[in-house]
């Protein structure tokens, strides 16, 4: 009898161990950061989608990530301010440590912090960093560089090559040259990177290299070679323009491997629009990031057991809110060819936010919590009221990487 119960106990233990081991690890991880995308930006955009595309007078239509099963809310204060900037916010998300505003992955005491991208890379995963601003800007920079000032673009861009990460995508270096020193391009190439301008070059060069930088195609007379906004792309109608969704698609193509990968992708210009209280820009940049999340979601559907997608923000900007929204006006104003004949653009004269019934509380960042949407392996860890520094810790835990 004793022997039988011993056998039963052993079997039960083996079964429980097997189920522990069976808990899938996140092998493919996407961290999307909507720069400046608070709860307000998400609500305004969902209301817009219902009113402008759904023809509803009231209601909300989901973005790619608002259908995720897990919702959390992250606090965003920095080491020296209730209201963070993008480099302290980016660093909290990349290293799990709060630092002073305007510094990048360096503590107030001057110690250098290690981004989870390096830990994840050391553990054998491939790593990608993408943004719609220049690749040496605050948020993408926080995932590979360290500097006492986010404005030191040359130094930040110089660190890209040293990272060894397999994929970078987005806007060209902001300030790549310094007299008497190799440029950021030369430093990246010396470290084994291939730089590709535009999708044709990317497709030509991708097979011959294991480390690639994918930039918007260069254009004569365009001061900053970053990724044009959704509305600028609509106006320019330039077939060479790329967007975050395409960068994420190319990133997946380049990074996909049996061991897995981590990709950070920033919808950078939600923040710019919100600083200007520019309602159409806020809406379309949020939609643009949602389209990029959609690409990751398609990947997730192929690998649902071991993919994790987290969508959050570094901070809120502008504090937009729906007062008494009539948001279909925004569509007619921005995309008039999509409206029925005889449509009158009410917003052509006057303040579009006022006419569309949207209020703003500031032209700066706010100190509010930001949303955290999550789906997939380990996503349950992102529920509830958390701090932004919890996010990289929990990503590492989901991936089985020591933090
Ligand atoms: Zn900002």
Features:
403 residues, alpha/beta, Alkaline Phosphatase, subunit A, 10-stranded mixed beta sheet, two-stranded antiparallel ribbon, 15 helices, 14 strands, 17% strand, globular, binds zinc ion
What does this structure look like?
The protein has 403 residues and is α/β, with parallel strands linked by helices. The chain has one domain (25-399): Alkaline Phosphatase, subunit A (3-Layer(aba) Sandwich). Helices cover 38% and strands 17% of the residues. It contains 15 helices and 14 strands. The protein has a ten-stranded mixed beta sheet with strand order 5-6-4-3-7-1-8-13-2-14, with helices on both faces. The protein has a two-stranded antiparallel ribbon with strand order 9-12. Strands 10-11 form a two-stranded antiparallel ribbon. Strand 5, helix 8 and strand 6 (212-215) form a beta-alpha-beta unit. Helix 2 (39-53) packs across helix 13 (328-334), helix 3 packs parallel to helix 15 (390-399) and helix 10 (244-255) packs parallel to helix 12. The longest helix has 24 residues, at 279-302. The chain is globular, with a radius of gyration of 22 Å. The structure holds zinc ion (ZN). The site of zinc ion (ZN) has 6 residues, from helix 11.
